[in-house]
Specification:
Length: 159
């Protein structure tokens, strides 16, 4: 019985480590931030969410690190990934990751193979971002938002 309780506590701690969101930065409200996530095969289902992060590169690195940790240290097999996508930061909790614009199915027979497939898919997304100059587009959106942000007037010092 004692070993069953110890195994249950160990499993719960491992799942808590893989399911906890990674928040590496304090992000001001009203700016473009990035979130990414991955789901793993298992009962109960588990996953990781990274963000908010201030750049796509930082988010991609955090997502890759979180996926590698779950596979290499906890033996999880990646089921699907939602690559890092930009969202506007506002007060409140994490946005629902079900609202991610797309999710990519990772088809791997083993944890190691699923990690390799996930990394290949994330590299393809990164290449698409570079090819279509997504970072430049998002920078323009941020500048437009800064000009039109209705909260800016409240933040300005009164003359």
């Amino acid at each position: 019985m004692k070993s069953l309780v110890l195994a249950s506590v160990t499993l719960a701690a491992a799942l808590a480590c893989t399911a906890a969101p990674v928040r590496a930065e304090q992000i001001p409200q009203g700016v473009l931030v990035y979130y990414g996530s991955a789901d793993f095969v298992g009962v109960p289902p588990s996953g990781v969410t990274v963000g908010p992060l201030s750049s796509a590169g930082a988010c991609e690195h955090a997502l890759d690190t979180a996926i590698a940790n779950a596979v290499q240290n906890h033996g999880h097999t990646v089921e699907s990934i939602s690559p890092c996508t930009p969202r506007w930061s506002f007060k409140g909790g994490l946005p629902l990751m079900d609202a991610a614009p797309y999710t990519l199915l990772v088809d791997g027979d083993s944890p190691r193979e699923s990690l390799e497939v996930a990394r290949l898919l994330l590299a393809e997304v990164r290449n698409a971002r570079e090819t279509y100059r997504a970072a430049e587009y998002e920078a323009v959106l941020t500048r437009i938002h800064a000009i039109t942000d209705p909260l800016r007037k409240r933040d300005r010092p009164k003359k």
